TrEMBL record:
InterPro entries: HMCN1-like_VWA, Thr-specific_kinase-like, vWFA_dom_sf. This is 654_t:CDS:1. Its main location: secreted. Keywords: Secreted, Signal. It comes from Funneliformis geosporum. Gene3D superfamilies: von Willebrand factor, type A domain.
């Protein structure tokens, strides 16, 4: 049994605590899964997104690797910075995860995107205020096109919710791909946040694996 797990995370300035929490629990997640399901091999990957005003720093991608130590080292280079208005380049981050990551095309592979963010994509459909791109993604990406690609590759989507600002995004996404788990990650307590990300990631892996067992 194989698992490809890609974290898609908002890496703008407001997300420092969540990025640090993810860094803190990668080895713990790997160790737990090795004990819980020794037959499961996991590759970790990462697609960080910021916003269009951040130029070359808009996306930060760590390709899939089966070395948890290498992944932890690469993840240590990710920092919270940038961001302009309230919405972020959510669709750009998800699109990169779907189309730039080397997903294994195997019926015995559970493909997972765990998306963690505190703001929705650009566009008035998400009920944004203070949006520099009220007509939506400036590159023409839509939730329908990005999530449609995700669905065609049979990638399971999970969301870590931090603020109420993403409520409409969740509703729109569910209207496109159906129901998906939403984990609450809105605590300001560092230890609780690390535990919540650990628990929710392990839950996402177990859920996705159960679908192909």
């Amino acid at each position: 049994m194989e698992v490809d797990l890609c974290f898609v995370m908002d890496c703008t300035g407001s997300m420092a605590s969540h990025i640090n929490a993810a860094k803190a629990c990668i080895l713990r997640i790997a160790a737990h899964m090795e004990t819980f399901k020794p037959s499961v091999t996991i590759r970790f990957g990462f697609c960080g997104y910021r916003d269009h005003c951040d130029g070359v720093n808009r996306l930060q991608i760590i390709p899939f690797t089966d070395s948890k130590v290498h992944f932890e080292r690469e993840l240590s280079t990710v920092s919270a910075m940038g961001g302009g208005d309230s919405p972020e380049d959510v669709l750009g981050g998800l699109n990169a995860a779907v189309n730039q990551m080397s997903w294994r095309n195997n019926v015995r592979t559970a493909r997972i995107i765990y998306h963690i963010g505190d703001c929705p994509p650009h566009g008035t459909r998400y009920k944004n205020s203070n949006d520099s791109y009220p007509n939506g993604d400036p590159y023409g990406l839509t939730a329908e096109s990005v999530l449609g690609g995700m669905k065609s590759k049979q990638i399971c989507y999970f969301f870590g919710k931090i603020t109420e600002q993403t409520n409409e995004m969740i509703n729109i996404f569910r209207g496109i791909i159906g129901e998906f788990p939403v984990y609450l990650l809105n605590t300001v307590n560092t230890e609780m946040l690390v535990n919540n990300i650990f628990d929710s990631t392990c839950s996402a892996i177990k859920t996705a694996v159960s679908l192909i067992e």
